């Protein structure tokens, strides 16, 4: 056996070790990779035998990553992620210019989708598959080339981020609802149903505070996972919603939603295009440049 082969552990042992590190034990690791707990234990033992040192401390029926295992994982896991990404890029795709992009659902429907004809005109050979994702994920374990993220850079470490734009959220309601529930000042909102997006339940208290209204004791109203669900509920007369204006331009132009108070609210959060730093080349670079151009002209 050559020296190079000597220091290359079996991939199945490395896979078991990585899963055990991420899950903090052998049982859940086995569930993920399709092995029994004892089979994972044997794979780890094979790796420890090769290294001639334990990687986990056995405490009764529990295991805990030790200092050697922790140091090994810090070096090994990024390398395995790079192998996954390299394999995904090299694997067969429908075309050599195909990309998979994860996007926030409402952003994809209202900002990306209407602009796709311009992307096709600029890069007719570029094929994009879009999928909905609302939370940061590990590019090493998901087959995506890039994603659209809303928040702050610190929320998604280890990726490259290109700032796209910030949003302005505005209060909106149905015109027939407003006729039946006149709103003369922002303080009147304390006495009507306030609809929220489920991940931004603090939006109404912040908007009211900016409008000079004491929102202490404000009762939470109905919440919806996606902004377009929120817009539909408000247009149906369920109450007043706080929604980024760029997501509801069709409803505002059609008059199915109106703005009772012209007080837009912005935050330090923004929309970003995120991707593994080493992946920026070819089709992804073309898509990135187009996204940045669109964001600048929006």
Automatic annotation (TrEMBL):
The similarity comment for this entry is: Belongs to the LysR transcriptional regulatory family.
Matches recorded under SUPFAM superfamilies:
Periplasmic binding protein-like II (SSF53850), Winged helix' DNA-binding domain (SSF46785)
Q: What's the protein name? A: LysR substrate-binding domain-containing protein
Protein's UniProt keywords contain Cell membrane? no
Cite the entry's keywords alphabetically: DNA-binding, Transcription, Transcription regulation
Database matches in Gene3D superfamilies: Periplasmic binding protein-like II, Winged helix-like DNA-binding domain superfamily/Winged helix DNA-binding domain
Q: Which domain of life is it from?
A: Bacteria
Pfam annotation, one family: LysR_substrate
Give the HTH lysR-type domain ranges: 9-66
């Amino acid at each position: 056996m050559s020296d190079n082969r000597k220091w290359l552990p079996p991939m199945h042992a490395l896979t078991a070790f990585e899963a055990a590190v991420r899950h903090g034990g052998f049982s859940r690791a086995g569930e993920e990779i399709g092995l029994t707990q004892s089979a994972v234990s044997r794979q780890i033992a094979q790796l420890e035998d090769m290294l001639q040192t334990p990687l986990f401390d056995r405490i009764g029926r529990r295991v805990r990553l030790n200092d050697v295992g922790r140091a090994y994982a810090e070096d090994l896991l990024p390398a395995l992620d790079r192998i996954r990404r390299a394999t995904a890029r090299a694997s067969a795709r429908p075309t050599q210019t195909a990309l998979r992009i994860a996007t926030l659902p409402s952003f994809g429907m209202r900002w990306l989708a209407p602009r796709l004809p311009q992307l096709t005109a600029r890069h007719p050979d570029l094929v994009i598959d879009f999928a909905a994702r609302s939370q940061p994920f590990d590019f090493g374990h998901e087959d995506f080339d890039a994603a659209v993220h809303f928040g702050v850079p610190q929320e998604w470490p280890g990726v490259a981020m290109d700032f796209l734009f910030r949003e302005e959220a505005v209060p909106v309601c149905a015109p027939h609802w407003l006729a039946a529930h006149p709103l003369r000042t922002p303080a009147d909102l304390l006495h009507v149903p306030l609809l929220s997006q489920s991940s931004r339940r603090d939006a109404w208290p912040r908007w009211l505070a900016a409008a000079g209204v004491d929102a202490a004791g404000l009762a939470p109203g109905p919440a919806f996972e996606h902004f377009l669900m929120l817009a539909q509920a408000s247009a149906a007369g369920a109450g007043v919603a706080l929604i980024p204006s760029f997501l509801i331009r069709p409803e505002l132009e059609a008059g199915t939603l109106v703005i009772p108070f012209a007080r837009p609210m912005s935050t330090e959060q923004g929309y970003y295009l995120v991707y593994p730093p080493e992946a920026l080349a070819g089709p992804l670079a073309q898509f990135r440049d187009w996204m940045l151009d669109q964001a600048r002209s929006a």
